Amino acid sequence: MAHPAQLGFQNAASPIMEELLHFHDHALMIVFLISALVLYIISLMLTTKLTHTNSMDAQEVEMVWTILPAIILILIALPSLRILYLMDEINNPHLTIKAVGHQWYWSYEYTDYVNLLFDSYMIPTQDLPLGGLRLLEVDHRVVVPMESPIRILISAEDVLHSWAVPALGIKTDAVPGRLNQTTMITSHPGLFYGQCSEICGSNHSFMPIVVESTPLKLFESWSNMMIYS
């Protein structure tokens, strides 16, 4: 969960988000090293009047500043491609959930169950329970079993939306007439908040997403209650 004045990412709640955080730190260290080198060279140029005749036309120097950036790009690209393939890999999901965006709410269907579908609306500020988060709480949460691979099918009924939950490392566009899919595995129980991340109209700011990760037994109890209620 994000908090005021937060400068970094939210704590990872899925293996994919952990990989994204590691890649962010890896790329940021490379950026820091390059920035420090450039600042050092600029400071040398501004503070010294000495020049070296061999540096005016040196093939070795040109080879270094051509090959070195290529190596740096490879060091950034390889882990990035690995994470991209991990994010697209879906192997034997235990559960499939279809999320459809509307103006301005989400509807969910658990396709492995019969008649387990519901709409999820934001709770108005005046109806929030004690300790509820303004503009983030919903009347029906997306309940998922912990440590289970879950496939999310995402689409929209009217305009473009985007199903995004930062703590899980998920941001997938919901496009009318198109079915996108993503996968997630929650690593621990908890509540994970997100919002529609595609400008979709006047009430775009009022389409929150709440994913509740629970142990398998609690998920089975919840699903039975929803089906027979």
From TrEMBL:
Its cofactor is Cu cation. InterPro entries: CcO_II (IPR045187), CcO_II-like_C (IPR002429), CcO_II_C (IPR034210), Copper_CuA (IPR001505), Cupredoxin (IPR008972), Cyt_c_oxidase_su2 (IPR014222), Cyt_c_oxidase_su2_TM_dom (IPR011759), Cyt_c_oxidase_su2_TM_sf (IPR036257). Residues 1-91 form the Cytochrome oxidase subunit II transmembrane region profile domain. It is a multi-pass membrane protein. It catalyses: 4 Fe(II)-[cytochrome c] + O2 + 8 H(+)(in) = 4 Fe(III)-[cytochrome c] + 2 H2O + 4 H(+)(out). GO terms for biological process: ATP synthesis coupled electron transport. Belongs to the cytochrome c oxidase subunit 2 family. This is Cytochrome c oxidase subunit 2.
